Amino acid sequence: MGKIKVAIIGVGNCASSLVQGIHKYVETPDDEPIPGVMHNRVGEYRIEDIEVVAAFDVDRNKVGKDLSQAIFTAPNNTIKFADVPYLGVPVERGMTHDGIGRYVSDLVVKSPHSTADISGILREREVDVVINYLPVGSEMATKWYVEQILDARCAMINCIPVFIARENYWRSRFEERGVPVIGDDIKSQVGATIVHRVLTRLMENRGAEIDNTYQLNFGGNTDFLNMLERERLVSKKISKTGSVTSQMDEEPEADTIHIGPSDHVPWLQDRKWCYIHIDGKVFGGAPVKMEVKLEVWDSPNSAGVVVDAIRCAKLALDHGQSGAVFAPSAYFMKSPPIQYTDAEAHEMVEAFIADPSVAGAQVKQRDGSR
Length: 370
Hints:
It is built from twelve helices and 13 strands. The chain is α/β, with parallel strands linked by helices.
């Protein structure tokens, strides 16, 4: 089936973990488990079939560097777990718009280069899948890039909480151009949102009542620094809160649930600490309380999920699917077009991998069922 040619928008920690992972798991036998991916082979595609052929950023310290160097350039501060050879892929100057937040402006200085011809590069390098790794709150920049992606007729994976795949307008635009989109807002492998969702669903399934819950997150990467600017945090809170409340049988009162980043702690680097608290009642009105602390390296925690999303996006391309790809979006993303339980979404994406054309049609028929 050949390579999956990928372009990355935003060469930050998430891009670093993804590129490292692509080069760490080369020639891994199909029967040797790889932590963080569903299968070593998805359809006919292995991890090593993913080839990054273009990358875009606005940071003067990254633009012009080979991608293999840029992923380890400050302010990137995630863990290094693999050596990456020289790739021959220069980081091109992207579009800024609202991509640099107030609290990040001292760390990220705009490159003096002119914005590259993004859609031209995507076409010239025959890119299959474009990954959006822009900072949280990059609403204008994301929509500008979406236009370039549509113009070049590429598939898109939207890893940030700017709503594209779940919005009718953008879904229809991708359908018109005949290309798929998976989104929005990537779930980590074992992250705060997925843990909170599963615990919430567990209590609902066991008949317990949830009275109050919170999820507080803090970390040391630029994502958390960016989210100190409350205006940039709106879509993130909507995405994370909606992802958890979708697992409840009844919509909770607004003042009984709080989910969102709380602070930036520089020495944590790309580590994230999460505290989850749930108050509820069981039989007889007896109280039950749950406290969870989760510690992760934030970017590697989502990179394996993106590896699977890339391969599912290419399967959708191969089978002529366009618009939102429902099953992978439901399993990989916090804010998909349709929310399902994680068990349902897992079954759906496995069915999609087994036969994308049949599974895609079946999932579309369920649109609006939840």
